[in-house]
Amino acid sequence: MNAISITRTETPEQGTRFHAQAARGGQLSVGRTMGEALDALTAQLDLTPYDSLFLVAEMKPDKFFTAQQIERLYGLREKLENGTLTDSEDAEFTALVEAELLGSARRIAAISDALAE
Length: 117
Fold this sequence. Notes:
Blueprint: E1 4-11, E2 15-22, E3 28-31, H1 34-42, H2 67-82, H3 87-116
Antiparallel strand pairs: 1-2, 2-3
């Protein structure tokens, strides 16, 4: 499975943009909407008809992924988009994407546990 994260940025020059990032392979796409970014990314991936996509709400700081981690992830993603990411930063970026995905899984488990009570 290749997990995909979608984040949002806003700049005066471009307005709102959504960035879809594959956890494995480093593929990245940008769109004016989440769907546009996701469509552009899935076109780059080798998906089969049996692959599943899971959507997770926009990243906000919590006990599973901190504000500092989010800020660093956004900074590294910007460097990736500008083509200025070093090899060590690329490894850090990948580790942060994986940490956020793990945080998402833990967040979902916590919600599931709360619903089961």
